Amino acid sequence: MKKLTSEECKPRILNLLVEFADYCDTNNLRYYLLGGTLLGAVRHKGFIPWDDDIDVCMPRPDYERFIELQSKNKKIEFRCIENNTSDLPFMKIIDKKTFVRQLYTAESETSNLWVDIFPFDGWAFDEQQSKKDMKKWNRWHWLSVYAQVKMGEGTTKVRAILKLPMALGARLIGRKNIARRMNELAQKYDYESSEWVGNFVWACYGIRERVPKEWFSQRVKLAFEGHEFWAPKEWDKYLSQIYGDYMTLPPEDKRVNHNMEVWLK
């Protein structure tokens, strides 16, 4: 197998996005560039230089429709908790011609290069209720993290020992069961009837993920690596809420990636 550099991986990941976007447009499925990928489109017209993945979101009804269509007529390789092929509560489009080893986990969630597809769900109208919902999500999220840490390793020997009970408990529950619970929590509020929406299943930015649905009610095309993909019309409001001054580059010590090794089979 040939080992790939980060720059050699990017065209392969981009091809996954192109294939996915074309399929969605053909089948009238809504999607939007999200997170660092949307930021990359706005700030760099492509990948953030040190980034090594792509994030996309879909309204929950379109997300479920995509899974239904692909289950009947599989044209795109993907994994998700809904068909019991993933240990995470969101979908990954994968490149089966590659093999990936993530260096910070005991086992790699996906053994292939991927594009993350996150469902957009409804959030509570009341912000305080949303914060309570996030506390529940946080507990399950940390269980998911601890379920895949390398046993006996940590930044210090004390930390390595202290995380053992949590890691053992999380493994007993099982990542699939944890993912299913997170998926259930995310669907507490119906997407169509909610005024506030966002990525709940993997809400790494906490309450900042909760946005007015009207920000995503219309779409615009943005350039990304020589292609054009759909983004929310109010991308500036979204990016400002998530990142603040998003046009300013972060310090070098904050420019992180997935710390992975990739081979072409």
From TrEMBL:
InterPro entries: LicD/FKTN/FKRP_NTP_transf, LPS_cholinephosphotransferase. Signal peptide: none annotated. Residues 24-244 form the LicD/FKTN/FKRP nucleotidyltransferase domain. It comes from the Bacteria. One of its GO terms (biological process) is glycoprotein metabolic process. This is LicD family protein. The lineage of its organism: Bacteria, Bacillati, Bacillota, Clostridia, Eubacteriales.
